[in-house]
Specification:
This protein is mostly helical. The protein has 16 helices and three strands. A three-stranded antiparallel sheet has the order 1-2-3. α10 crosses α16. It is globular, with a radius of gyration of 22 Å. Bound molecules: coenzyme A (COA). Coenzyme A (COA) binds next to α15.
């Protein structure tokens, strides 16, 4: 097939919009100008979502109000829960999530209202409902009833609580909180671009977010974290890592969780997730997943000069937290929903239809050939 030449293939290096939300310079990722290292150290997911949407860190009062609003929107209608109940038990969890988020629009009287006020209300409701949906999808397919949200818990702790039915330790809740902070936004990644394209047609917020979920699902984007865990499981032990990598690289397989379109000197999120994975390996006394990952990192750097991306160590982090790998990409979506929404709101604020051109490389102009002459 002919390759696009006018712009780099895959739009590499193309600046498609301006945005004041997040930026990547070298190996530094900032949200509204603040380094994610500082945010991961000191902030919370709620504070980060507020920062992404409104441009500034909240005051204590603003944060308290925002958290309260999120808590008050966690309820999912019984119709939506009954709809999820009818999903096939073996459905892919991202397929379930995109279907469930789409169905949220039926229960939202503001779904088609494009006013700024309605969009702000939908933003809060959607962000609050993502974790509730993911937990409900998981529990119902396991034959268990959804766990009602606990209004005393923050988003990260409540998510783990609704998934497992047990209150997480402070340490695990904080690790989930940091993971949500690290995944919250990432400039014009593929799913965010998809959300902005949908929003640019003045399609509604639920539709734009569903477009983003569909795009996150693929293994070259958010689906890589699940693929990493499948790889680790298939390798099985630290000793088996070198032979696996030799074989896979000889076959020219892509090793999931390595490489990045933008970061060439390392993904700052991966460094954090590596640290969290090591901490959990110590806390659980099960070092195998961490040590396999660390050896893969060393060998990939030595063999290919490729470094881990956000999806690599998040796989072992979530596994240590007791989450099944089929939920890794939905967890990414729980967090990235904050960034998608920020971008959709930014797109609506200063919209112009996103409609690029393609360089035509097909046959030259020719006539229609009647069926009898073919
Ligand atoms: N494993 C093995 N080789 C890889 C690789 C990987 N994970 N990522 C990139 N490479 C190699 C490519 O084969 C290519 O080599 P070549 O020049 O000899 O053909 C070179 O590095 C450039 O890769 P390319 O696929 O053109 O980069 P890209 O910018 O189009 O793709 C990714 C970026 C992220 C899609 C790609 O690195 C990848 O597929 N990684 C695995 C999936 C993943 O982890 N995705 C999550 C991203 S956050």
């Amino acid at each position: 097939m002919a390759q696009a030449t006018a712009a780099g293939k895959g739009l590499e290096g193309v600046t498609a919009t301006t945005s004041a939300i997040s930026s990547i310079i070298g190996s530094t990722l900032t949200y509204r100008g603040i380094d994610i290292n500082e945010l991961a150290e000191h902030s919370t997911f709620e504070e980060v979502a507020y920062l992404l949407w409104y441009g500034e860190l909240p005051s204590q009062d603003e944060l308290d109000r925002f958290k309260q609003e999120l808590v008050s929107h966690r309820e999912i209608s019984s119709e939506t829960i009954d709809f999820i109940r009818r999903f096939p038990r073996d459905a892919n969890s991202m397929v379930s999530l995109r279907t469930a988020v789409s169905a949220l629009a039926f229960a939202d009287p503001l779904a088609a209202d494009m006013s700024a006020d309605a969009n702000n209300q939908k933003a809060v409701a959607l962000l609050a409902q993502f974790p509730v949906l993911v937990a409900a999808i998981h529990r119902l397919r396991c034959g268990e009833e959804p766990v009602s949200p606990d209004p005393n818990l923050n988003e990260a702790a409540n998510f783990l609580y609704m998934l497992n039915g047990d209150w997480p330790t402070d340490s695990w809740a904080r690790i989930m909180d940091i993971a949500l902070i690290l995944h919250a936004d990432h400039e014009l990644n593929a799913s965010t671009f998809a959300a902005r394209v949908a929003a640019s047609t003045l399609s509604d917020m639920h539709s734009a977010i569903v477009a983003a979920i569909c795009t996150l699902k693929g293994p070259l984007h958010g689906g890589a974290n699940e693929a990493v865990m499948k790889t680790l499981e298939s390798i099985g032990s630290v000793d088996a890592v070198p032979a696996y990598l030799r074989g896979a690289l000889e076959r020219k397989d892509k090793i999931m969780g390595f490489g990045h379109r933008v970061y060439k000197e390392g993904d700052p999120r991966a460094r954090w997730l590596k640290r969290l994975s090591s901490q959990l390996a110590d806390e659980t006394g099960d070092r195998e997943w961490y040590e396999m990952s660390e050896l893969m990192e060393q060998e990939m750097k030595a063999d290919k000069g490729l470094l881990p991306n956000v999806d690599f160590y998040s796989a072992s982090v979530y596994t240590y937290l007791g989450v099944h790998r089929d939920l890794f990409t939905p967890i990414f979506a729980v967090s990235r929903a904050s960034g998608w929404i920020a971008h959709v709101l930014e797109q609506y604020e200063n919209n112009r239809l996103i409609r690029p051109r393609a360089e035509y490389v097909g046959p030259a102009a020719r006539g229609y050939v009647p069926m009898s002459e073919r």
